[in-house]
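hey can u check if this looks right to u? its 186 residues, i copy pasted from the old doc so theres a chance i mangled smth
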Amino acid sequence: MSYSNKIHDQAFDKYLKNTRNWKFQFSLIIAVIAIGGFFLYGALSNEMDNPEALQIGLGVGLMFIVIGFFSGRSNVNNRSWDGVVIDKKITKTRKDIGSGRRDAERYIFTVFIKSQNGKVYEIRDEDDETVYNYYKVGDKLRHHGSLNSYEKFDKSGDTIVFCNACAFLHDIEEDVCRNCGCPLLK
């Protein structure tokens, strides 16, 4: 029973770098589409002419680039911390699906974690109780800041384990994530 030292594996650093790069590349693609779309709109429509449409497209494109940059940097400085599961709650809700049809019942599964500095965090899942059932009240957890994921201290009775990089669900006997290639913390 302990936290895994595998968290220092280079595969996690590579995963985080690839994720940051992908976020920024995706924002660049969206920016190019926005700029091109506004330019074409200005060239082909009677409502707005270029260069006004192009200027708007450049503004929207720049906004996407800034969002991509900050999105990629958002988890870089997050610190890890330890905590304890203090409560769990299931909330039943109804969702209006309209057209005179019956409302759909939805369930929200929430796990409450209190950090060592007293702040309470929540893990919420809608209509999936897997994570809810994975954690028990009293479980010690470590939040890995840069990955924004939780690791249980005692995994001795578990039959499943989540990848701390991509959250893919695995059998406890597996050692490496089939989805992203990072080691499983167990």
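The mean pLDDT is 91.
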